[in-house]
Design a protein that fits this description.
With about 150 residues, this protein is mainly α. The chain is built from five helices and no strands. It is extended and about 65 Å long.
Length: about 150
């Protein structure tokens, strides 16, 4: 809590290591801007790969698995989805896209969190979708259920 207070006073000197880090950051930012201008196709491919990996890996943590041959179609396509797992992966990608596009303009509020939850659930039938969706009344972890 007192970390920010140390910045309230005047700096007597800046440590050499801090100056080196600042120099490295400035150089990296210049390289990033140059790369963005020179190789937009590569950057787009890297962004798409990152979206796919994020969607698949994050859902795998929840036990959601999808056929490797359908990953690109699920994440970027408009095809018919085969099952609930595919719906969750696509919903996660849609929520992630919203977060990336809106950035700091996306308010951190209850309606936003509920909207993101609805997106990540896809068109799943039993996930409390719609205007009447509510928070659960009890926290199962507080009740001693460690499963």
């Amino acid at each position: 809590m007192k970390t920010l207070r140390s910045f309230a006073g005047k700096f007597e000197s800046v440590p050499a290591s801090t100056s080196w880090y600042q120099s490295d950051l400035g150089e990296a930012r210049g390289k990033q801007e140059l790369y963005t201008r020179q190789s937009p196709q590569r950057l787009k491919a890297l962004r798409e790969h990152a979206l796919i990996e994020s969607a698949i890996s994050s859902n795998r943590i929840e036990g959601v698995t999808v056929d490797v041959s359908r990953i690109g179609t699920i994440v970027f396509g408009k095809s018919f989805l085969k099952d609930r797992d595919e719906e969750e992966v696509r919903g996660y990608r849609q929520a992630l896209t919203l977060i990336h596009e809106m950035g700091e303009r996306l308010p951190i509020s209850e309606p936003t969190i509920l909207d993101l939850h609805r997106m990540t659930c896809g068109e799943i039938w039993d996930m409390g979708r719609g205007q009447n969706a509510t928070w659960q009344k009890t926290d199962r972890w507080q009740l001693g259920n460690d499963q």
